[in-house]
Specification:
The chain is of the alpha/beta class. 41% of the residues lie in helices and 23% in strands. The protein has 3 domains: 76 residues, Arc Repressor Mutant, subunit A; 110 residues, D-Maltodextrin-Binding Protein, domain 2; 102 residues, D-Maltodextrin-Binding Protein, domain 2. The strands form 3 sheets. Strands 3, 4, 5, 6, 9, 10 and 11 form a 7-stranded mixed β-sheet that branches.
Length: 318
């Protein structure tokens, strides 16, 4: 075979990805259950075929060259497509079975996903569920990288792009500013300006809720909220919010009687009420597994149940 045709062995591609991510042959060998000489030969094969260096040494670390960076991105994509092909062919013989990988925002995981998961398991007992709970920006990135089949979370302008994503709106939800019930913010009239002296616990800067809140202050010519603590899971920290006297920004659902934030109180301001919609999101170019299709069907059937009773008003909460 002539040198003009490049043939990439999927096993070599897998080894290359592991070496690149570990940055060390010994760590990659341990992860893969292979010997270091075997991985060294893999690198040499690839570099010989590509006629370029993929790694350079920086002390004990192996660091990708510019060509290695490009090759890494392409191999990640190639292995993703190969995995999808295997799943699709396997599904042709097994029907609604196999693994469904779901990413969920904490609010959706707490209040909405249990109903859907229970019905999915009832209808398709052969299905296994791999659930990742996290911030929406991280989950959407995993969706794009094809490490998730569906994301259950807030629909943003980014994920509503019909060319890149398919979104299935399910239920509305409000994010609101909150504080402990005895916070001094409630001693006088609540205005956006009255929030300025206090510090906040908020999500990371890449999360849509935080961006919306900061933009609200900026649009009115006010300085952004003073962030004293940043976290990857606001909904898991109601007690911390209350004990530290920090302000925060969470789903109003968490404030309902029996909710994880039932001892918090909403700061009743229209300006800090973010009206949003939750739903399921998938990557259009990704393989739509039978299990994922069934979950979307169940979600649409269960929309009234997901919406539940009317959300509590600020008066009910305070």
């Amino acid at each position: 075979m002539g040198r003009g045709m490049l043939m990439i062995d999927l096993r070599d591609a897998t080894y290359f990805i592991a070496i690149a991510e570990a940055g060390n042959l010994a760590l990659a060998a341990e992860k893969l259950g292979r010997t270091q000489p075997a991985l060294t030969k893999c690198i040499h094969r690839l570099e010989d075929d590509l006629r370029t260096a993929l790694f350079r040494h920086e002390g004990r670390r192996l660091v990708l060259t510019e060509a290695g960076d490009v090759f890494y991105a392409r191999m990640r994509s190639l292995l993703g497509h190969a995995s999808e092909i295997r799943r699709e062919i396997a599904d042709l013989g097994t029907g609604v079975a196999g693994l469904i990988r779901i990413g969920s925002a904490a609010t959706a995981a707490e209040y909405m996903l249990p109903t859907l998961a229970a019905e999915l398991i009832r209808r398709a007992p052969a299905v296994s569920i791999d659930l990742t709970v996290g911030m929406n920006d991280v989950l959407v990135r995993a969706l794009i990288e094809k490490n998730l089949d569906l994301v259950f979370g807030p629909l943003t302008s980014f994920t509503r792009d019909p060319e890149r994503f398919e979104a299935f709106p399910l239920v509305s939800d409000d994010a609101v500013a909150v504080a402990s019930r005895d916070h001094p913010i409630f001693d006088g009239p609540c205005t956006l300006e009255s929030l300025l002296p206090y510090k906040w616990v908020l999500s990371g800067g890449g999360v849509a809720t935080r961006q919306w809140l900061e933009n609200t202050f900026s649009t009115l010519g006010l300085p952004p909220p003073k962030v004293q603590m940043q976290t990857s899971s606001i909904s898991l920290l109601p007690r911390l919010i209350a004990e530290t006297k920090l302000l925060s920004f969470i789903s109003r659902r968490n404030l309902a009687p029996g909710g994880v934030g039932s001892h918090l109180r909403e700061i009743p301001l229209d300006a800090t009420t973010m009206r949003r919609e939750f739903g399921l999101i998938r990557l259009r170019e990704a393989y739509f597994t039978p299990a994922a299709r069934l979950l979307v069907l169940i979600a649409n059937e269960k929309r009234p149940e997901l919406a539940g009773s009317p959300l509590p008003s600020p008066a009910d909460i305070g």
